[in-house]
Design brief:
The protein is mainly α. 78% of the residues lie in helices and 0% in strands. It is globular, with a radius of gyration of 22 Å.
Length: 254
């Protein structure tokens, strides 16, 4: 029974990754179409020669880095506060943002920005995208860091304070080192989620804040463009490796 389930899981896993393999293979195709005409790196060269793609990629990188830094700091602090307070209702409410459809969150954020702009006289742009990404990334950070905190012995901080350390020193010298792998893993996860987001970003982005997923979607709607295969393959390889490193850090023993 276990062998059969294992084979079934392996087969399903392989089947789900067939489209990614096909995408990677045709990113090296000399033809514009899904007919193999020879090996070529032409489409990878085209990726680095497209000014619109470069601008969209830079926007995505800037948004992802800034939102990751903010959400990691805020989320880690929230996770520590929930660990100290141990309020199950408050902690459980974090999952609400994870189960809320992206279209609903995007509409709610857009409505919030439109309401606030009446008083602030701003407009949609990179900063609204960053704030939106922080809003949905915090939950991921809190959940990852909180899972790590459940393995930390709270009495260690108390012992440090009994030995003369204040609360900040006990946190910095005892708890923070134990949380470091989880914080890094949470930051990597937040970076991946932020860079990949399309639905929410497309609703709160301004005319000068197109991101890479938005560029890919716009180009794909106009017809076949093998450069999409190339940039998508690069994204899969980079963020796939990032997720593997994140999972390895998250599961490391404290």
């Amino acid at each position: 029974m276990k062998r059969a389930l294992g084979l079934y899981a392996a087969g399903l896993y392989a089947f789900l990754h067939v489209p990614l393999v096909i995408l990677a293979v045709f990113s090296f195709n000399a033809s514009k179409f899904t007919v193999w005409e020879g090996f070529s790196l032409h489409w990878y060269a085209a990726v680095f020669q497209d000014p619109e793609l470069a601008e969209a990629a830079l926007n995505s990188i800037e948004i992802a880095i800034v939102s990751t830094i903010i959400s990691t700091i805020v989320g880690s602090a929230c996770a520590y506060g929930f660990w100290k307070r141990r309020d199950r209702v408050l902690s459980g409410s974090l999952y609400l943002s994870l189960v809320t459809p992206e279209i609903v969150m995007g509409v709610s954020l857009l409505a919030f920005f439109q309401w606030s702009f009446r008083f602030l006289h701003w407009r949609l742009g990179l900063y609204t995208v960053i704030l939106s990404h922080v809003a949905f990334s915090i939950a991921y950070v809190v959940i990852v860091v909180a899972a790590r905190l459940r393995t930390v012995d709270a009495s260690l901080e108390e012992a440090a304070m009994d030995l003369g350390a204040n609360e900040w020193q006990a946190f910095r010298l005892v708890t923070l080192p134990a949380l470091a792998p989880a914080i890094v893993a949470a930051a990597m996860l937040a970076l991946t989620v932020s860079f990949d987001d399309y639905v929410i970003t497309s609703m709160v982005a301004g005319v000068d804040s197109e991101t890479l997923p938005m560029w890919i979607y716009a180009v794909a709607r106009r017809g076949a463009n093998p450069a999409i295969n190339a940039i998508s393959a690069l994204i899969v390889v980079f963020f796939g490796g990032l997720v593997l490193v994140s999972e390895r850090l998250r599961s490391r023993e404290p």
